[in-house]
Amino acid sequence: MKTTTKWVSHLAFNSNDDNNHTVRLDTSSDDGSLNSGMSPKKMLLGALNTCSGMDVVGILQKMKVPFSQFEIEAEAEQTTTHPKVFTGIHLTYKANIPAQEEDKFKKAIELSLNTYCGIAAMLKKHCSITYSIILLT
Questions:
Q1: How far is CA 71 from CA 49, 52, 91, in A?
Q2: How far is the C-alpha of 117 from the C-alpha of 110, rounded, in Å?
Q3: Do 120 and 129 form a contact (C-beta atoms < 8 A)?
């Protein structure tokens, strides 16, 4: 696994992987930059959402649980002193899964956060990760 990150301007960077995918990382104009991309910490939360989401979708499909909408919101608390690190993360999983399948939804999330998602495993070594479920109608 390899990425290369190049400075663009101000505090903006483009990060490329070995498959030629590019992601812009930046900070807000209030912090002296272009506001042209996600901040690194927000990108980390997005990576956690996606890592867990990929697991959950795959597990639900194997369980034959029907759904057509699925999203994850991540909110993190962080310290106020440098280095500002996460002290806790809360994930909210939302899907239009039938109420009678909620236990399978919870099992898929638990498997992701406790067994399969490498990003969750790394982050849990430093801060707690909690979650809630919202069934969409």
A1: 8, 11, 10
A2: 10
A3: yes
Question: Residue 46: enclosing H or E segment and its boundaries?
Answer: helix 40-62
Contact predicate 37/25, CB 8 Å: yes
Cis amide linkage into residue 40, ω under 30° from 0: no
Q: Which of the 8 DSSP states describes residue 113? A: I
Three-state SS for 75?
Answer: strand
Cβ pair 93, 133 in contact under 8 A: yes
Q: Which residues of 56-86 are buried (b: 16+ CB within 10 A; e: fewer)?
A: bbebbeeeebebeebebebebeeeeeeeeeb
Q: How far apart are CA 19 and CA 104, in angstroms?
A: 34
Write down the pLDDT at residue 40.
96
Question: What phi, psi does 37 have (nearest 5°)?
Answer: -170, 175
CA distances from 47 to 66, 67, 68, 100 (A): 25, 22, 21, 30
For 80-107, what is each residue's pLDDT tens digit? 999 999 999 999 999 999 999 999 999 9
Distance of CA 62 to the CA centre of its chain: 22
